[in-house]
Structure formats: C-alpha cells, structure tokens
Design brief:
By secondary structure, the chain is mainly alpha-helical. The protein has 14 helices and no strands. The chain has two domains: about 200 residues, no CATH class; about 100 residues, Tetratricopeptide repeat domain (Serine Threonine Protein Phosphatase 5, Tetratricopeptide repeat).
Length: about 300
C-alpha cells in the first residue's frame, strides 16, 4: 500500500475503530456490565481504543484494528440477549458514521461554487469524507463475519442455537491466522465489494467527479469523431464548471468538426480569457483563418509563437 493511500485511510480508521469500540463499551455499560467503563473505554478519546500495532498495520496491510472491549456476560441481566446487543453495537456505530458521512458529502459535493481554491478544498474534503464512509462500511462488514475475534463470532453465536459465544484465548491465534489468510488471499473481497458497492450507490457524487465523468466522455466522443455527442458532453461539463478553459477549448474542436466556426471562436475567446495558453492562440488562429479573418489569425499565430519562446 502506498503511503499516500494509507494517510487517506488513516482518519477513517481512527474514527471507525474509536466509535466501534466506544459503542461496545457504552452499550455493555447500559446493559449492566460496568467492566469496560471502569477501564475507561466509555470514551471517544481515540487513545483509549487504538492499538499501536493495529494502527501501524494500515501502512503495511490493507486494514487495521483496535483494542477489543472486554465484557463479563455474567453481569448482564439477560446474558445471551444483552451480549448480542453489545456485540451488534460496534458494527451499528460504523453504519451510523457512514450515514453521517453521506450527509456531509451532500454538502461538500458543490465544489465549484467556492471559486478555484475553494473547489480544490471542497473536492479534497469530499474525498476524505468518502474514504471515512467506505472504511466504516468495511469495518461493519468485516465484523459481521463469524470468525473470532470479529464481532460476528459473538453475534451469530447468540442467534444460532448450540454455538458458544465465548472462544478460548489459546485457540484465538488459530482464528487470527485463518483471518489473515482470508485477507491475504482476497477471499473476503467479494463480500466487502458487495457492501461497499451498495453503500457507494447512496453516496452523493461531487461536482468535481460529475465534471470529470462528462469531460472524459466528451474526449472519448471527440477521439471517435462523434462531434455532436462530444459537444453535448462538453456542454454538460461546462454547466457544472463554466470556468474550465480546457473544456471550452475541447468544445471548440467539437464545434469546428461540425463547421460551427462562430461557436468555436466564441469558445476559444472564453478559453483565452481564462488562460492564455499558446496552444489556444494557435487554435483560434485556425478558426479565424477558416472565417477569412487572416489579419487576426496572423496576430494570434505571432502571439502563440512569442508565448512559446517565453516559456522555453
């Protein structure tokens, strides 16, 4: 895993593990077992829940872990039912975080309404919240798998008759080896991708992503010589971000392919007003020559040449 990806995932891991373990401790305390509270685990302070090794693992492995919350089921009034509820509390907390992130993405999606610098900031904020949501979905999904020490081994043991909700510590290493083996061989990928895919279908798409999708589709149509389709895609992209000089220049090409030279000229004028790229001057010169405006075309060609010399 790259360092950049690990750093993007770290906030989600810290938040996800913290609320997950807090939910276990808090629910157990409400249900009558005060053991976790006396250990200081009914807290949203990440330092009380994170495992140093589990946190560092994110820089090597595609996942991490926190310090498990210990409970004494004999303190519960209804041991099996209360143990089930306290075990479900962790994954449920991760689902709640995912829901809150989805709401936050609804706000951060409007990146281009905040100017050039604001768009970059809001775009990064949207991606960060999206990463946090995805990681919480992964944590919730993994913890429903019935392999110790995951919560699923406790949840399903409380539901399926005959299963024991408590595993012996000396056998735990065998299950850990099994879990690492499943992760290493990507045997759990189908399950995780199913959950993440369905969750992502609920995530609001950012303006930046919508713009990138339309622009990419326009470029594909342009390459294929589908001029009208390309113009339509670039127009959709410009409706999202009217300040994209690259998109204006690309639409000018699509309009030129349909012999709409006046429309192409208007796009190139706007692109140059936003960014004086020498290539834009050269392209506008071609349009001007087609329109028979030779003197203006020569001026643009000279401008393009001088700008290129200045950058060499």
């Amino acid at each position: 895993m790259s360092l950049e990806l690990a750093l993007w995932m770290l906030p989600g891991l810290v938040i996800g593990l913290t609320v997950h373990e807090f939910a276990h401790a808090w629910s157990a305390s409400l249900l009558g077992d005060d053991f976790a509270r006396r250990q200081g685990r009914v807290s949203l302070n990440p330092l009380r829940h994170l495992s140093p090794l589990g946190t560092l693992a994110i820089f090597v492995l595609p996942f991490g872990w926190g310090k498990p919350v210990l409970v004494n089921i004999y303190n519960f009034k209804h041991p099996r039912w209360d143990y089930l509820l306290s075990s479900l509390a962790g994954p449920a907390a991760n689902v709640i975080v995912m829901g809150l992130c989805t709401a936050a993405m609804q706000w951060t999606r409007y990146s281009f309404r905040f100017g050039a610098e604001g768009a970059l900031t809001m775009g990064r904020a949207h991606e960060l919240v999206r990463f946090i949501a995805i990681i919480n979905v992964v944590l919730a999904t993994l913890n429903l798998i019935p392999i110790p020490p995951l919560d699923g081994s406790k949840i399903w043991a409380c539901i399926v008759p005959g299963m024991k909700p408590v595993q012996r510590p000396r056998t735990m290493w065998l299950f850990l080896i099994l879990l690492f083996g499943l992760m290493y061989t990507k045997s759990l990928d189908t399950t995780i991708e199913f959950s993440v895919g369905h969750a992502m279908s609920l995530f609001p798409k950012s303006e930046a992503q919508a713009f990138a999708d339309r622009f990419r589709e326009g470029v594909a149509d342009l390459t294929a010589g589908q001029w009208a389709a390309a113009e339509a895609r670039f127009s959709e992209a410009l409706a999202i971000n009217p300040q994209s000089h690259e998109c204006l220049a690309a639409r000018a090409v699509a309009r030129g392919g349909q012999h709409n030279w006046q429309g192409a000229l208007e796009d190139m004028n706007e692109a140059i007003a936003l960014d004086g790229d020498p290539g834009y001057y050269a392209n506008r010169a071609l349009v001007l020559r087609t329109l028979g405006r030779t003197a203006e075309a020569k001026a643009d060609e000279a401008k393009a040449g001088s700008l290129r010399e200045a950058t060499e």
